[in-house]
Write a structure and sequence with these properties.
Blueprint: H1 3-61, H2 74-77, E1 81-83, H3 96-103, E2 105-110, E3 116-120, E4 136-140, E5 146-156, E6 160-170, H4 172-242, H5 247-275, E7 283-286, H6 287-304, E8 308-312, E9 317-323, H7 325-341, E10 348-356, E11 359-366, H8 388-393, H9 400-410, E12 414-420, E13 424-438
Parallel strand pairs: 8-10
Antiparallel strand pairs: 1-3, 2-3, 2-6, 4-5, 5-6, 7-9, 9-13, 10-11, 11-13, 12-13
Helix pairs in contact: 1-4, 4-5, 5-9, 6-7, 7-9
Length: about 450
């Protein structure tokens, strides 16, 4: 992954996170506002219906004598009353209260079981019976219009329960308004998230610009330093080779110069890999052959260290990836040589090649000294050493694993590690396959 891809990916994640957080906030605020509005409207509506119910309750109390039974002369006081199983003719009245019933309100009488007895200027069966005696609820009438109904106990004769007075009001217009609001939120919030995402992308770019410049300068410094070190190192080599220095001092100088050369080359390679400036030759690579070549090259190192090195490669098929062969070879060389260096005498290192879901998996497992759990997240950092003395004794520069990770990421793969103190380590390389050829 080159420098621009890394920053664009981070910028995209920041923009998406920002848009997601803002969108979620808008949704939560919209939901809370909706709940508050509905509850406030319901409370106000129940109070309004109670006032309307009290008007009818005061008129009815003087007429009602027996619980659940209306007197025969009820029509004298309420000519607009309609009974069940009878036709109901709506009567116009100059009364403001009765005008409400013709427009959007509803009043009916229920017995103590919640069954409809009669209604005023409406049919009592406009709604189903309230058998469960719900106090306040929404329901649609026979024409599909939405109403809010409120139940009030109707008492007579020394607080005796006669039945119930149910008062209601049409809330169809409010429901249509709320549906329009829901549609607005449904369309508005995604639109707002897109706009916020665009703004987040722009803001993330501004915020990350200083970081990007600093990172570019650091990469440039690494590349320049590695390049400039080549000249004095070459001069030192020439001086050592052409001047009379005692053999022991010369060997020490040559060893340090060799270490500097390796360090310079590793720094330059790592800088080019991370910046995307490394010119690479892309080709089909056979993982089977590559693993075998790495085993063959490192076998003498393993024998000198008295470590058993062997591999397991499937013999039924060849597995191919697309990439740069020298880089993949260098990556495997770093991982396997590390495993050998940190495995005690008599231990073993195993290279295993498997495939799964169009991916090639190479595991390098050793029985070495292992890596402390606290150090595992940092082992791919530049110059990080779990044990400084150990790295110096083995000639390591602290860049081998950083280079291996950079190569794997350049090839769109993954590098994972599992380790336990005194039980060894397992490095797993996962690379996307391009083909599989049966033998």
């Amino acid at each position: 992954m080159n420098n621009n891809s890394l920053f664009n990916n981070s910028r995209f994640k920041l923009a998406i996170t920002y848009a997601g957080v803002m969108g979620t906030t808008l949704l939560i605020c919209g939901y809370i506002a909706h709940i508050v509005m509905v509850k406030a409207f319901t409370r106000t509506l129940d109070r309004e219906l109670e006032v309307l119910g009290k008007v009818f309750e005061d008129k009815l109390k003087t007429q009602l004598k027996t619980p659940g039974i209306l007197p025969l002369n009820i029509r004298k006081s309420f000519p607009e009353i309609c009974f069940e199983k009878q036709s109901c003719v709506k009567i116009k009245s100059e009364s403001a209260v009765m005008s409400l019933l013709l427009q959007s309100h509803y009043v009916r009488l229920l017995n103590s079981k919640g069954e409809a007895i009669a209604a005023i200027n409406h049919h009592p069966n406009e709604f189903t019976d309230n058998i469960k005696l719900h106090h306040s609820y929404d329901i649609r009438n026979r024409n599909g219009e939405l109403y809010h109904l409120h139940l009030m106990p109707l008492k007579i004769n020394n607080n005796q329960l006669w039945g119930y007075l149910q008062v209601g009001r049409s809330i169809q217009r409010l429901n249509d308004y709320m549906n329009s609001l829901h549609l607005l939120l449904l369309l508005g919030i995604p639109t707002a998230m897109i706009i916020i995402g665009g703004g987040g992308w722009w803001l993330a770019g501004l915020a990350m610009l200083p970081i990007k410049k600093s990172y570019q300068k650091l990469e440039q410094f690494t590349a320049d330093a590695a390049h400039e070190l080549r000249t004095p190192i070459t001069s030192l080599q020439t001086i050592v080779e052409t001047n009379s220095i005692n053999q022991e001092t010369q060997k020490a100088l040559e060893r340090q110069i060799k270490r500097l050369v390796t360090l310079t080359q590793d720094l330059l390679l790592l800088s080019r890999l991370e910046s995307g400036l490394q010119e690479v030759k892309i080709q089909r690579i056979c993982l089977n052959d590559l693993v075998a070549d790495v085993e063959e090259e490192l076998l003498p190192l393993a024998m000198n260290a008295e470590v058993l090195l062997f591999s397991h490669v499937p013999d039924q098929a060849y597995f191919y990836i697309q990439g740069n062969e020298s880089q993949i070879y260098r990556m495997l060389l770093n991982l396997v040589s590390n495993a050998i260096k940190y495995t005690p005498v008599g231990g073993e290192v195993k290279i295993n090649l498997t495939t799964n879901d169009n991916q090639g998996t190479i595991t390098i497992k050793d029985t070495g000294i292992g890596i402390p759990a606290a150090d595992i997240p940092h082992i791919f950092d530049r110059f990080y050493r779990v044990n400084a003395d150990r790295s110096r004794n083995t000639g390591g520069s602290g860049l081998g694993l950083a280079i291996a990770l950079a190569i794997v990421q350049t090839h769109k793969g993954k590098l994972e590690v599992e380790s336990s103190i005194n039980h060894g380590s397992t490095f797993t390389v996962i690379l996307p396959l391009v083909s599989k050829v049966n033998r």
